[in-house]
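Hi L.,

You mentioned the student needs an example of a multi-chain input paired with its predicted structure. This one should do, with 832 residues in total across all chains.
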Amino acid sequence: MASHILIHNGTVLTMETDRPVIENGWVMIQNHRIQQLGTGALPGVAGHGRVIDAGGGIIMPGLVNAHIHAPMSMFRGLADDLPLDVWLNAHIFPAEARQVNPDSVARWTRHSCHEMLLSGTTTCCDGYFFETEVARAMATTGIRAVAAQGVIDFPAPGVPDPQENVRHAIDHVTAVKELGSRITPSIFCHSAYTCSSKTLVAGKDAARDAGVLFQIHAAEVKHEPEMIKENNGESVIQYLDRLGILDKQTLVAHGVWVDETDLTILARCNTPVVHCPESNMKLASGIAPVPKMLGAGVQVALGTDGCASNNDLDMFSEMGTAAKLHKVACMDPCVMDAKTCLTMATMGGARALGMDREIGSLAPGKKADIIVVDTAKPHMQPMHNPFSGLVYSAKSSDVSWVIVDGIVRVAGGKLA
Amino acid sequence: MASHILIHNGTVLTMETDRPVIENGWVMIQNHRIQQLGTGALPGVAGHGRVIDAGGGIIMPGLVNAHIHAPMSMFRGLADDLPLDVWLNAHIFPAEARQVNPDSVARWTRHSCHEMLLSGTTTCCDGYFFETEVARAMATTGIRAVAAQGVIDFPAPGVPDPQENVRHAIDHVTAVKELGSRITPSIFCHSAYTCSSKTLVAGKDAARDAGVLFQIHAAEVKHEPEMIKENNGESVIQYLDRLGILDKQTLVAHGVWVDETDLTILARCNTPVVHCPESNMKLASGIAPVPKMLGAGVQVALGTDGCASNNDLDMFSEMGTAAKLHKVACMDPCVMDAKTCLTMATMGGARALGMDREIGSLAPGKKADIIVVDTAKPHMQPMHNPFSGLVYSAKSSDVSWVIVDGIVRVAGGKLA
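Structure written out for the whole complex:
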């Protein structure tokens, strides 16, 4: 028997091109999917169905956080305001060696998923070690996720022998495929300076063979090209292109230090980039040229990065920062308008993960990944424009309801 | 009979130099002032006293928002992502002409004060028109405020004849002095490009005669020197210095386009600057050289600016943005550490407003302007460092208790 949920009494932001805003709207969910959207008179709900009153707020797609390291919430605030090498070598790496194990990874992954659900993120894209444990922990929380096993040419948590790193990732992909459709496996080669060309190619080949997303940190820091032993004076993007790694199923995290040639390559290869403005600011990595990326036709998603470098998983804050950072960086208040930023955090993320047929907007037949944002508090009034309201004024604590895959995960601002 | 409030079971951040953190601490309030701070065993509370359990959170001074235009919350989200001249001339100025009157100013000032109190701001520094109405509205909410009548050489709301602008401000100062000690009057000459040198000098003379703070927007936009008719190729700061306007009772809002000569002048004159990073980013004004200001010995406070250009009054968000923005602008993750940002938002603001003997830190004898920040939610755990937690992870919605002048204004996250 079909299970229905009707969400009503709100402004529906569909994030669809042809009907972006439905005033006084409603959304009907049947089982895991959106059945219908409308305005005015409400459709009937079968006896056992649930009715959610959005209280005049905003009904919109759940947010997609396209770059996280979920277990790293255990290191939130452990070491801030430090030079990058001190932060990594004196704090994060030793803490990882000490604290990262299957149990801690599972515990802090659940913690991060709770943080994400409470703040309106319904899909996240993760990469870390012990990732099969991460994926299992994510599955228990109800979030939708891409879970990538990390690959690096050094001994790593759970992978003492680097020779086994790609094989380990392949085993992870196989294991996660059994977890069900909400959790999708992926392979994450850490970077071009911590993986040899052989590892990068083997990792990408394995991802391609399995039909899953391949991820890599690239062009995050200015001196990255010099850190890559095997490149010939190329940019990182040129190097990855030469290795045959860039296609639409490769996700580039950061892309801060990219020039116009790099952008042309990324656009030609249909390779999406995840923009992580707050992490890039906090670590002083630089400012990714996102308006130029969008102008060059590169798909851009938005991510928070891990809690060790942000220090939260708050996509509302990330949208607001993205909007404001590029305005001042370009000295142009018109770039990165509110709708562009909201698109990055919804459809942009869905496209980057290859999930845009299923999530990222509200349309009949799509998965029911839906959030309600309360607009009653003083900082959300008056509401002249819902896109502005969400990007420039909303806090993640305004998220009152979160539904993933047709299941209520946050009700009245609390975990269900 | 003395009224006592005891706040206990929290980490006390005093923001005092000699004892910045008290673990497992408590604060005893007697009437309007802090009587005592301590750790461990609790002092007795007289029968009619109130005991507030901080629930293991952070007990700290209320935040000081040193630059706002409170009534402008009525224009929140009205016009975003536009060129500055279109934003001002096609949207804000016409909306002001249409909507700004004594009633709307009072209504939206109360609204803004509620937003500020709920988000942990206990003192604000305002400038607008119909400011006596603003001050009266503020007084009803319990917030501590500096309320400055705007002075501009054009017809303005409530001041149709610009010839009367300074006289009007003087009348305002007289009227507000009757409102009681929580609301302090001030005079705000809009800028050096909208006020003649004669108006600037008259405004400053009036403020000096009354012993009140003089405020001015200065060096906010790059081409400001060219907009000032009467300067001789000077910077704005040099021009204001030549007019004799800069001293410790003049507060410069923004200070984005200042060079080292300007910083030397500001330091010599003990003139504080209010840094408004989010407004400067959103309007694409530029990035104020705050680390250089602090290095030159300039006092720096933090402000949100008005809701038309931010679009909120959230000092937690502003602290986090300040910390991250300057790291990336300087390409140095060590600048603007969490404690520096928290100091700007507390003692920095108190000093800028000439109130540092009364507010800005927790010490016996100081006014009881105190907030409690809940640290139980997932995004605040683990708590390795309270300064990092407050600046990089806390949301203003984590503020659970707000006390101003010894009176509870927010209880359990709701207006009392």
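You could point out the following to them. Chain B has a mean pLDDT of 96. Chain B has two domains: 4-62+360-415, 63-352.

Best wishes,
N.
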